[in-house]
Amino acid sequence: MAKEPCESAGVQGAAHTTADADCSPETLDASCGTPAAGAGRKPCCRRRGGAGAASVEPAVLAALLYADGYGYDLRKVIRERTGGVLDVDVGGMYRALRRLEDEGAVESRWCEDAQAQGPKRREYRLTAQGVELAQQWLEVMRQRLQLDVLLGDLLEGGLLNMNGKRRANMSNTFKLAVPTMGKAGLDSERSGHFGHCDCFTIVDITDGEITAVGELANPPHEEGGCLRPVKLLHDAGIDAIVAAGMGMRPMMGFADAGITVYFENRTPNVGDAARLVAAGEVPTMGPENACHH
């Protein structure tokens, strides 16, 4: 639609104020600084958490990078550019715009739509400071994405570890599976690949002592893929397995099945590995120990 010449918002005397809580020292970068008396705040990237307030400001800046517009236009751009996944609260959007204008990142002016009736509307445009602020947001979000990946790995490993502790605390007696080459037994050799082992030596452990030894045949690896041993051991009532390594998929499968996975890759003998587990000297396996094959 054609627009009539716009008037500066400042001419209309529409002053905007921003609560100190919106830009407190705790939520600003060191680059924000303290404005001189009567001066607007310097734009800075706010690192507040949550999917609400933390997404409104960068979404508004992104919309203004595409084109100037009224509040309705900006919201429409955000929804269309994100396939409707992201939508901003109208009230939050205008609060963000007022804050950005106070800081000099955004300018506004009053405009009339030549083909529409009604009051004048405020049109917003990005300043050079606003573009700089958008770049700050992009850098922070890239760093946040890397941090989220690290935190996800940390949580995943913690949950696996907690599962191991929970299983250990449930009972003083548990059944341990040890991937084995050849025949099962404490004197046998451990298999380096739990999925391709000839069998599992099943070791009953009570109060830190080995009380019984058994054998569980291991069908060909192709029958059910890497999750087949998970079901096999779960159905046999196994509480834990000690392995020299495994992929993330079976590791998470064991966690879901309530089977603790211990990591030990230095002891070749079945009995020695089982005794280490019984003595509580073997850590649970985490994502850092996972094989990538």
User: Which blocks of ≥5 consecutive residues have pLDDT under 50?
Assistant: 1-40, 47-52
Got a strand count?
9
H and E order: EHHHEEHEEEEHEHEH
The dominant shape is rod-shaped
Which whole number gives the mean pLDDT?
78
Helix content: 25-40%
Major sheet size, sense and barrel closure: 6 strands, mixed
End-to-end gap: 58 Å
- Secondary structure class reads alpha+beta
Q: Approximately what portion of the residues adopt beta-strand conformation?
A: 15-25%
Count of discrete alpha- or pi-helical segments spanning 4 or more residues: 7
CA gyration radius, whole angstroms: 31 Å
Can you tell me about this structure?
This protein has helices at residues 53-66, 71-81, 90-102, 128-170, 228-235, 248-257, 270-278; strands at 7-8, 106-111, 121-126, 173-181, 189-190, 199-206, 209-217, 240-243, 260-263. The two termini are 58 Å apart. 37% of the residues lie in helices and 17% in strands. It is rod-shaped and about 90 Å long. It is built from seven helices and nine strands. A hairpin with a 7-residue loop joins strand 4 and strand 5.
Give a brief rundown of this model:
This protein has helices spanning 53-66, 71-81, 90-102, 128-170, 228-235, 248-257, 270-278, and strands spanning 7-8, 106-111, 121-126, 173-181, 189-190, 199-206, 209-217, 240-243, 260-263.
